[in-house]
Amino acid sequence: MPDIRLIKTEADYEAAMAQIDEFFADLPEPGTPEGDRFELLTVLVARYEEEHYPIPKADPVDLLRFAIEAPEH
Description:
Number of strands: 0
Number of helices: 3
Distance between the termini: 42 Å
Strand content: under 5%
Radius of gyration: 17 Å
Helix content: 55-70%
Shape: elongated
């Protein structure tokens, strides 16, 4: 597996996501080297996403209104 490094570019992000996806086929046990690697990758991805893909704050009333008015599927 490639070395873990800070995620600074979209290419770094995609590479980290690919590594995380590999773990979902067989989730590693926490506390093992693979488990630590999985945890570290998810922390780095979350940090990158918070900076580059922030979720905007929403007014609770607007959220409720949207939920009420949204068509049912």
